[in-house]
């Protein structure tokens, strides 16, 4: 989609989707607070009047960037979790996919949602939105584990909420480790260790 705005009386066109992608990378790398308007305008290739005309405010741009980020990675992560034949394999695929993607050298390291949680603290509306995004991942894992009980992959007495929170906590910890420079191979080893906590026992 191409936006047309006016700067000093002259129309200016730019690709809104490409501009949003550029802004997402800036926020992902620097966080909301540290990303200046100059950083954003330079990366997006537009002036501040065009930015405000197209996105409303820095806060609104950030919200769109978070949603754009979710649309990039969440479907693949969800597919890794859901397409595996068993719940155990699904959780393992969820962690191993995270190990690869969070430490991918072609883009900012770590998960934008996890890394944004501290940076957006105290900013009206943003903290709540970030929390909802994190809850979405937890609910997705809970649903896969619940299905695992129904399909006989997990013991019926398994505490789904506790197990889901454990694996999501591991995955979110991987994000911090990735940002610190931990390589994918090491994060993959974390996934291997985490899978040793998988419940065993009667499934019927």
Textual characterization of the structure:
- The chain is mainly alpha-helical.
- It has a domain of 127 residues: Tetracycline Repressor, domain 2 (Orthogonal Bundle), CATH 1.10.357.
- It is built from 9 helices and 2 strands; from the N terminus they run ββααααααααα.
- Strands 1-2 form a two-stranded antiparallel ribbon.
- The radius of gyration is 20 Å and the shape is elongated.
- It starts with a strand and ends in a 9-residue tail after the last helix.
- The relative contact order is 0.12.
- The N terminus is likely disordered.
Strand order of the largest sheet: 1-2
Question: Any idea what the radius of gyration is?
Answer: 20 Å
Stretches with pLDDT under 50, minimum 5 residues: 3-11
Any idea what the CATH superfamily of the domain at 70-196 is called?
Tetracycline Repressor, domain 2
């Amino acid at each position: 989609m191409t936006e047309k705005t006016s700067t000093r009386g002259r129309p200016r066109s730019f690709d809104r989707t490409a501009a949003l992608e550029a802004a997402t990378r800036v926020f992902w790398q620097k966080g909301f607070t540290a990303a200046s308007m100059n950083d954003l305008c330079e990366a997006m290739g537009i002036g501040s009047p065009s930015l405000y005309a197209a996105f409303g405010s820095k806060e609104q741009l950030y919200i769109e960037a978070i949603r754009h980020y979710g649309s990039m990675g969440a479907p693949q992560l969800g597919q890794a979790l859901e397409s595996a034949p068993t719940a155990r394999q699904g959780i393992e695929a969820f962690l191993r996919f995270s190990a690869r993607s969070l430490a991918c050298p072609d883009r900012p390291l770590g998960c934008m949602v996890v890394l944004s949680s501290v940076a957006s603290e105290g900013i009206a509306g943003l903290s709540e939105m970030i929390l909802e995004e994190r809850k979405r991942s937890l609910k997705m894992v809970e649903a896969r584990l619940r299905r695992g009980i129904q399909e006989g992959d997990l013991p019926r007495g398994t505490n789904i909420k506790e197990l889901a929170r454990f694996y999501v906590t591991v995955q979110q910890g991987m994000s911090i480790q990735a940002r610190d420079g931990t390589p994918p191979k090491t994060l993959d080893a974390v996934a291997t260790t985490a899978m040793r906590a998988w419940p065993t026992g009667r499934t019927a």
